[in-house]
Amino acid sequence: MDPTESLIDEFHAQPAESDRRRELVASIGDILAKRPDHPAALPFLASVAADTEEYDVARVEATTALRLSPPTDAAHRQQAADALLAVMRGPDEDLCRQYAAMALGPYAEAPEVHEAMAAAVLGDEDPLVRDNALAALRQAGPSEERVEVLHQLTDDRSLGGEAARILRAWGREQAA
Q: pTM score, two decimals?
């Protein structure tokens, strides 16, 4: 049996809000860091991240792993992006949404991810979701769509200065 499968089995055997669950998710995230397309680690982490009934701390750990170790395979990338989008669109507590927003950067080439980042940075009610979506947008790097979002954001009272700095760093500042 693959050690990852043993960790997943142990995860399911733990009480719902056990710190051991978070530790096991972190261990599986470490496996994903070594093998970004691990056939058991990636689907497991995506399912934990998207599961609204799961312990929030384990979900945060799963979204962090998906941010730090994005899969290289297109199908796996889409699976990870779909899980993060489910968190962003779901009825989740702010903490999970904050971490999911931060994790979107590596998946920004997918149009639905770009739309979720743009919506979050331009109008989410949680200021930390907005901040984290801006960090993800910066991490994703310049594209016409992302530059357009940043230009829209430059007049924003709280994030406008950072949007202008990103645009300058990308060599895409607005003409006066």
A: 0.92
Q: What is the pLDDT of residues 6-38, one digit of tens each?
A: 999 999 999 988 899 999 999 999 999 999 888
Token reading at 52: 């609204």
| 20 and 55 Cβ atoms separated by less than 8 Å | no
DSSP sequence for 73-142: SHHHHHHHHHHHHHHHHSS--HHHHHHHHHHTGGGTTSHHHHHHHHHHHHH-SSHHHHHHHHHHHHHH--
| Segments making up each domain of the chain, as ranges | 1-103, 108-176
90-122 pLDDT tens trace: 876 789 999 999 999 999 999 999 999 999 999
